[in-house]
Amino acid sequence: MTLNSDLLKVTERIITRSNDTRQAYLDKINRAAEDGPRRAHLSCSGQAHAYAGAGPDQDRLAEGRAPNLGIVTAYNDMLSAHAPFATYPDLIKQIARDEGATAQVAGGVPAMCDGVTQGETGMELSLFSRDVIALASSVALSHNTFDAALFLGVCDKIVPGLVIAAASFGHIPAVFLPAGPMTSGLSNDEKAKVRTQFATGEVGRKELMAAEMAAYHGPGTCTFYGTANTNQMLMEFMGLHLPGASFVTPHTDLRDALTAEGTRRALAISKDGSAGFTPAGHVLDEKAFVNGLVGLMATGGSTNLVLHLPAMARAAGIILTLEDFADISAIVPLMARVYPNGLADVNHFHAAGGLGYMIGELLEAGLLHPDAKTIMGDLTAYTQDPKLDGNRVRWEPGPRESLNDKILRPASDPFQKTGGLVQLSGNMGQGVIKVSAVDPKHHLIEAPARVFHDQDSVKAAFKAGELEGDMIVVVRFQGPRANGMPELHGLTPTLSVLQQRGQRVALVTDGRMSGASGKVPAAIHVAPEAADGGPIARIRDGDIIRLDADKGTLEVITEGAMDRPAVQVDLSANTDGMGRELFETFRRAARPATEGASTLSWRRQP
């Protein structure tokens, strides 16, 4: 199928925009690849330090001829999504030995759960944990004794941080190994119903706790299509996972076989491997990021990736803008309905045909770059499904028809003709809105502003019965420089109740919502943020705001509103406690949300 002309235009625009920074990046990693791992160049003392903990692999490492894999793991046993990684290193090491190679755990990275920290102080460290993960991964790989890297991570900031690190060490191959989703428990729709009942006082905390425990009940990622599962989708669309690996549940024979096969693949694409040298920096090119954007739109993925993808891309010398997101969204059909954009969970989506079916459809429609380099060669390999053959994996052609058209539809007959994300611009700045789960009758909201400086104040006003009538709730001073840009997902039940009462309501914020946000229109990531004196800091209660998702506009229409001085507030309460004092440098250094809100200082376009 001929490549869609608009997709080609966006790709060429990104290539042109990124020409200087991308070439500088490629020159850097190509020089590093020529030099190779320093293992053989270390002093005898240095090598002894590097191999002292390697047990039975010491002799093979000392010989320096066989490939050595570096494992970077986000394992911890507090979080269900990462608990399965406990057994991965031993399996990886044994497979490497069987292949005549070695593997070492290069280092661990933190993995926090936004589900635990929602509405809590710790959430103010969440977004910056992405940059900490990238930095920690770089420390792990800095010993420069590895021929390829295996990255074990799943959730919200973990995968983007690991991708930034993989790009920074782009002279060696990188293979990402997922853990998979937990098996289906209480449906996401039932869980949301109980949350709403709790918000209105119809049920108590005991009933709420029982529902939450029935939904989040075992190892693996949460089953709704939030940021964690969007990350997993992205790794397939961008060619860093094995085909079909994303949504296989933990502790199954196929899951273990895919982990073993991922280890073999990392060895095969190392410098002297059998499949040809495939450095991560060559996989992470402009076509890969365009394919990732297509996957985001076709699946109705998390808005958090609007922050993460530009940060990930810049680590590889590629510059993405909100215009790229908007233009891709305009040409990519929404093919999936997965909660919160439907009743199904990711296990149902996978059973209906999953990513293999979707990638095949989008390739046929000319909406993906088929020749994008991947760890498997090119993207066409990702139309296949993994099957067990003994204890090994074989790939078979994936389904060419959806097995449940209420969950997954062909590109020719989608749920919506365009993707789930819209760029917003106007006199209030720039932002984005996820519309895939928003009823079209709520795409246009024009109403008076109710202004708050934190989400707790919104909840307090709700409980006091003060949120009457149509309104646009403005929650500001929630950007990266103000307080680390915590998620405001805790507002979803409150705003949903107002909407269900028949009020026309929307949210406008310089903060962010999670991938679980849905039916209430939310203009998020508004930049410049209030802490930088952005237009959102000039809004007062009663100002009329017009949010039009169909036209892509966000404007205050009250005359003179933008002529006022920006409101300034005391943000000192956000600087101490729960480790926040250690992140002061991050808050000061954070780039705008439109550039990924990153603190890292890689080379940028002037």
Automatic annotation (TrEMBL):
It comes from the Bacteria. Binds 1 [4Fe-4S] cluster. Residues 406-597 form the Dihydroxy-acid/6-phosphogluconate dehydratase C-terminal domain. It catalyses: 6-phospho-D-gluconate = 2-dehydro-3-deoxy-6-phospho-D-gluconate + H2O. Gene3D superfamilies: IlvD/EDD C-terminal domain-like. Pfam families: ILV_EDD_C, ILVD_EDD_N. Pathway: Carbohydrate metabolism; Entner-Doudoroff pathway. InterPro entries: 6-phosphgluc_deHydtase (IPR004786), Dihydro-acid_dehy_C (IPR042096), DiOHA_6PGluconate_deHydtase_CS (IPR020558), ILV_EDD_C (IPR056740), ILV_EDD_N (IPR000581), IlvD/EDD_N (IPR037237), Thiosulphate_STrfase_CS (IPR001307). Its EC number is 4.2.1.12. GO terms for biological process: D-gluconate metabolic process; Entner-Doudoroff pathway through 6-phosphogluconate. GO terms for molecular function: 4 iron, 4 sulfur cluster binding; metal ion binding; phosphogluconate dehydratase activity; thiosulfate-cyanide sulfurtransferase activity. It is an enzyme of class 4 (lyase). Keywords: 4Fe-4S, Carbohydrate metabolism, Gluconate utilization, Iron, Iron-sulfur, Lyase, Metal-binding. [4Fe-4S] cluster binds at C155, C222. Signal peptide: none annotated. Residues 67-378 form the Dihydroxy-acid/6-phosphogluconate dehydratase N-terminal domain. The keyword Transmembrane helix does not apply. GO terms for cellular component: cytosol. Its cofactor is [4Fe-4S] cluster. Belongs to the IlvD/Edd family. Catalyzes the dehydration of 6-phospho-D-gluconate to 2-dehydro-3-deoxy-6-phospho-D-gluconate. This is Phosphogluconate dehydratase. It comes from Aliiroseovarius sediminilitoris.
